[in-house]
Specification:
Its main location: mitochondrion. This protein has about 280 residues and is mainly alpha-helical. About 70% of the residues lie in helices and about 0% in strands.
Length: about 280
């Protein structure tokens, strides 16, 4: 079982922590211990061990999240890097070397930020009016608002976000990047009223993922007041997606080549391949 939570508790409280380096067997104690353990059902022991492990894992996870949350304050100065995590650890009351908890360095910080933003967006979408969702047409305003709300969460880190995107495009980080992106578009589709269980489920989500990644790139270069150019860009991309969906519904066979091409471009956008030169 990991001793990390106990070590971190000791470090934070300022006490020394000495790990056991050896054990000495005492026959009487061992015998008594064995006799005591034999009186307890094995299932109780397993449940107790599992509960303890879960508590320690949760404690460790809470510590990591606390450090990463503090590290975000240092991103404007140090970027998405180990230096930010180390500074965040010290701000949280732990030694700077605690950054060793994050083997992927800056990628772990970017992933935490994406997950946190996705969760915040879900909370906001749950409180938005649902009148438009009752209509049979696609709730474009709801989707536009969701995309813009999520993008504007990047605003405090806009200058350093290209570096974050480059980190996400590295092979080792692509799985986490895709997971958070697909979680984002699935949440938007679900809360916009999409309950489809057919092939359109995949089309809508892959299409929305492509729209979001394209808009994200556009947003980084947008200098317009109140990001009006980005808003117009989102509206245009959603209209294009609706036209493609209409073409597929009207003539699936003739639209197949264009659909495959669009899917290929979308996949490249999702993986960030178009940004790598």
């Amino acid at each position: 079982m990991s001793n990390l939570p106990r070590v971190l508790r000791s470090l934070r409280s300022g006490h020394r922590y000495i790990l056991p380096i050896m054990s000495v067997r005492i026959n009487r104690s061992s015998k008594l211990l064995r006799n005591y353990c034999q009186t307890r059902p094995e299932s109780e022991v397993k449940v107790a061990i599992a509960a303890t492990e879960h508590e320690e894992q949760q404690y460790e996870e809470d510590i990591k999240n606390h450090i990463l949350e503090k590290a975000l304050d240092f991103v404007p100065k140090h970027g998405w890097s180990v230096e930010s995590i180390s500074a965040g650890a010290e701000a949280a009351g732990y030694p700077g070397v605690t950054h060793g908890l994050f083997p992927n360095g800056g990628a772990d910080l970017v992933h935490y930020f994406n997950v946190r933003c996705n969760d915040n967006l879900v909370k906001k979408m749950k409180s938005w009016p649902k009148e438009e969702l009752k209509e049979p047409k696609v709730p474009t305003k709801f989707i536009e608002n969701a995309i813009m709300t999520r993008l504007l969460m990047i605003e405090p880190y806009k200058d350093s976000w290209p570096k974050a995107m480059a980190i996400q495009a590295l092979p080792n980080n692509v799985p986490n990047c895709l997971a958070t992106l697909l979680s984002l578009v699935d949440d938007i589709c679900y809360h916009s009223g999409d309950r489809s269980v057919d092939f359109n489920w995949y089309i809508r989500r892959v299409g929305l993922a492509g729209i979001y990644k394209a808009t994200e790139l556009f947003y980084l270069t947008d200098k317009s007041q109140d990001n009006s150019a980005t808003k117009n860009f989102v509206s245009s991309r959603i209209r294009d997606a609706q036209l493609i969906q209409t073409a597929i519904n009207m003539s699936p066979v003739s639209a197949a080549p264009q659909t495959l091409t669009a899917a290929f471009v979308t996949a490249k956008n999702i993986l960030g391949i178009n940004t790598l030169k």
